[in-house]
Amino acid sequence: MSKMLESANLTAGLAELDGWQVNSASSGDSGPQLQKTYSFRGFNAAFGFMTRVAMQAERANHHPDFQTAYSRVTVIWTTHSSGGITALDLELARLTDLCASDTALKA
Question: How far is CA 35 from CA 18, 41, 63, in A?
């Protein structure tokens, strides 16, 4: 099981990411979450992005929550078993950004 990051390590990790925020968990979830919303040129681009992220997540055996609305996708990373954000969540946030950069992001 991965260890939840301490505040200083989380702050340092966030400084290396663009646009990611730490949010408190929604009801029923435990601990803080990393969250970012992406806007794409259309539904197909948004769906393709989610598919690429899902493939990375499957390789890591760690899966995000997705919230979608046509061409907008919000990705949420957290490690439920650790009660918050771990180093793996930060790494997968970086990979998520790489997946987005290969997609038709809205300008």
Answer: 11, 20, 13
Phi, psi at residue 98, to the nearest 5°?
-65, -40
Under 8 Å between Cβ of 49 and 73: yes
87-101 helix and 7-15 helix, angle to the nearest 10 degrees = 10
Partner residues linked to 84 by β-bridges:
79
Q: 29 is written with which tokens?
A: 């979830």
Question: 7-101 is classed in which CATH architecture?
Answer: 2-Layer Sandwich (3.30)
The two three-digit tokens of residue 69, written as one number: 């609305």
102 pLDDT exceeds 90? Answer: no
Q: What are phi and psi of 67, to 5 degrees?
A: -125, 125
In single-letter form, the type of residue at position 63 comes to: H
Express each pLDDT in 18-67 by its tens digit.
999 999 866 566 689 999 999 999 999 999 999 999 999 999 999 999 99
Residue with tokens 């950004």: 97
Q: Per-residue pLDDT for 99 more than 90? A: yes
